[in-house]
Amino acid sequence: MKPNRCRVTLLVALLMGMILLSSSCLSPEKQYHSYRSMPSCQWVWGDTLLFVPSLNDSLSRYRYSVEVRHDNSYPYRQLTVALSVAHQDDSIVCYADTLSCLLSNARGVWQGQGWGNLFVSSHPGRTFTIPRSGTYLLRLSHLMQRDTLPGIFNVGIKLERITPQ
Question: What pTM value is reported for the model?
């Protein structure tokens, strides 16, 4: 019986992610870091990814990064995403942004770190503030013209606190 290509590649992606996390120094300002897996190794239009961090410093700014794990079957150079941030107790969005993640250069060479046909890249966004401490809902969705994006294995969010000077 042949192993499912998606499952094998997903296993390699998880292993690579654990190696990268364990070998890198983690910033003491890092507040939150989490990935969501894509069913069938593809991101379908309307599948909004939900992240739920606790943010406890309303005097600081937070910088977000979108992290993408994909393989060679992803058909585009970039991935455009929309992010919204709202406090869990109310549905009022306190921050919204659109980010274009450049996954390859003009010659088609994938950016970020890779192993075999799997690549991981991080794309820093802007900074934002929160109105009060608490649990927040971060919603991330893709804004590409194609309904289903093949080759996307995981998408993550990293938040870093930028302390006031």
Answer: 0.81
